[in-house]
Design a protein that fits this description.
about 400 residues, alpha+beta, BirA Bifunctional Protein, domain 2, Rossmann fold, 5-stranded mixed beta sheet, about 35% helix
Length: about 400
């Protein structure tokens, strides 16, 4: 447990120093506690994880469709999981009349189901298919427990899927999704064994778990919710809910997949922060921190550094940086020559930047530059015309 606390302190110290996330409203007095803002690096990490999830769950599958569900709903209490919100103040400073039926959602599960009848028509009533959504949800949390940081917040981002499958194939699809989702989390992990799966006794639900410093927690849940929600929709709307499977029409079961994006961000940060013993350019062994995020999740992919205060070197570094930007590769361009390259390398390692390109006098003479790898600290000599393609090749590989 002490080792877990030490790791948590390292993670929080690095995140605070580089502004990856910070407590919201910390500069002003507020009754809201437990909420966190993401800084420039943190927001990119979060967005990268979300994009990878969307690519895996929606874009890469022909039977999956994305929707956007509103967080605010005017629906009767009890119909979905809800939290009541206060009325907003109008521009004319006159208090608005409270809307007794205004609620914010703590989960999008039921809202996704309300897109089912229209999507059923879209696919010509053919099963199976699924609907996905990423959105902000709200929940009540214990404000006195601050140990779990962004794992559990009053305001959080939920990534959710409702997959509609014929009842006879629901068990098969449940296992298939369970296996796929565990592989997805492990794919971006430097320590895949920290992710595990826990199947409930009735085999109708499974949890993807992660070993946080304080213990094992759920970061994603896959469950067979049956057909009751769809049957309730039919009672309310009289819209057809039966889909075609082979030569029959059946009411599908719902495989529900719900993941907390913020919990996923913190899980990857926890395992990525490492302490390494390395040798600097003078051969001296030093201890350094490194944010060893997967290349696909790293907030900045490459840094371009001019080694000398030379006009031509700076111009070449600027040109290469623009080339990365045009290729859609997030780049960190240092306009001024750093006092110490080693210190700059270590700073970039803490920021999670996988590759550093150094432009020096030799580059002007021969066109050869160096690409430094964050994880190995090894340097590869490459002609400047091939730098972008090599970095792109590394980023495209999982």
């Amino acid at each position: 447990m002490s080792g877990g606390k030490d790791q948590l302190r390292k993670v929080l110290a690095l995140c605070k120093y580089h502004g990856i996330f910070q407590q919201a409203n910390q500069l002003t007095s507020s009754i809201v506690t437990g909420c966190y803002d993401y800084g420039p690096l943190g927001s990119d990490i979060k967005r990268n994880i979300e994009n990878e999830w969307w690519q895996s769950v929606v874009t890469a599958k022909e039977y999956m469709f994305g929707v956007e569900c509103a967080s605010l709903h005017g629906t009767r209490p009890g119909s979905i999981h809800q939290v009541k919100v206060a009325p907003l103040q109008s521009d004319n400073s006159e208090p608005n009349t409270p809307h007794e039926n205004s609620f914010v959602q703590s989960s999008f599960s039921n809202s996704l189901c309300r897109h089912y009848p229209q999507t059923l028509q879209l696919v010509n009533k053919k099963l199976p298919f699924g609907i996905a959504n990423v959105g902000r949800c709200y929940q009540t949390v214990d404000s006195t427990d601050s140990s779990k940081i962004i794992y559990r917040m009053p305001e959080f981002t939920e990534m959710s899927v409702n997959f509609f499958t014929p009842p006879k194939e629901s068990s098969q699809w449940l296992y298939s999704w369970q296996k796929e989702r565990l592989q997805w989390w492990r794919k971006f992990s430097g320590t895949p064994s920290l992710f595990s799966v826990s199947v409930q006794e009735d085999a109708k639900a499974a949890d993807i778990m992660f070993q946080f410093p304080w213990g094992v927690e759920v970061i994603e849940r896959i469950a067979n919710r049956g057909s009751k929600i769809l049957e309730d929709i039919y009672k309310d709307t009289k819209k057809n809910i039966q889909g075609k499977f082979k030569k029959r029409f059946v009411t599908p079961n719902i495989i529900e997949i719900v993941a907390g994006l913020d919990a996923g961000v913190f899980a990857y940060l926890v395992e990525a922060v490492q302490q390494k013993q390395i040798k600097d350019s003078n051969g001296k062994t030093i201890s350094r921190k490194i944010l060893r995020l997967h290349r696909r999740l790293a907030p900045i992919k490459v840094a371009v550094v001019p080694s000398k205060p030379d006009r031509e070197i700076k111009e070449l570094a600027e040109y290469l940086s623009k080339e990365f930007c045009q290729a859609g590769i997030k780049v960190f361009h240092i306009g001024e020559t750093p006092i110490s390259l080693d210190k700059e390398f270590f700073r970039f390692d803490e920021m999670g930047i996988p590759f550093i390109v150094v432009i020096d006098k030799e580059t002007l003479k021969t066109g050869v530059t160096e690409i430094r790898n964050r994880d190995t600290t090894l340097k590869q000599q490459v002609h400047i015309t091939g730098v972008k393609d090599i970095i792109q090749k590394h980023l495209n590989a999982y």
